[in-house]
Amino acid sequence: MDEKIQCAKCPRMLCYPLIAADQEPSFEQAPSFCPTKVKKDVMEEALQEYEREDVREFARLASVQEFECYEHTPDGIRTKIPRIEETIQFAWKNGFHKLGLAFCSGVANEARMITEIFEGKGFEIVSVCCKAGAIPKERIGIKPEEKITGPGFYEAMCNPITQAEILNSEEVDFVILMGLCVGHDSLFIRYCRIPMTVLVVKDRVMGHNPLAAVYLSRSPYYGRLRRGAKE
Ligand code: SF4
User: Fold this and answer.
1) Less packed terminus of the chain by CB within 10 Å, N or C?
2) Tens-place pLDDT, residues 175-225
3) Largest CA-CA distance found in the chain, in angstroms, rounded
4) Alpha-carbon distance 228 to 176, whole Å?
5) 16 Cα–ligand 1 center, Å
């Protein structure tokens, strides 16, 4: 059986070398799990996709945008803009005007602020909350004792397929995801047929910054992330 591909365990990252533009990267020293070495056929096939004009242009603009997120200073390369500006600039570059905002009810205030910011920059915003439709959770088999507000309350389910289909039907140019739950976001991504980006990743206890728990996993506070299978 083929060895598992494991870039995350790579000791050298030879695919991102600091060499002169006329030099060729070398993979002689690459680990045996390196996809650049052992997945040449898949890489070649994937590369063909960039030959499609729309894909190539989208990829090119994404890389131009990436470049514009940095600046050269006497102290070296520095980062320049937050992700929301990166998103605005990328949308401008692509000529997107009508944007879809798929947001979680838990970040409704932030969705309003983000709408104001994008509208102030000249975009049209179509926004859909995850609870749209107000369908009770019982519809997907949730038991009364599994409702967050308690068994006695009506609790609308998160409805990512509906969110996606509404934005599909509105024919927005580009979709921005804001704070959908794990799994609900998977369904949204599966059903939305429009190019999308993620502006906000929900993390209920880390101020929507999942990496905070990862950074703290080497401290006693979230050391449990590195212990045992289940705790
Ligand atoms: S592609 Fe190869 S060199 Fe690059 S990170 Fe993965 S294993 Fe390392």
Assistant:
1) N
2) 999 999 999 999 999 999 999 999 999 999 999 999 999 999 999 999 999
3) 69
4) 36
5) 8
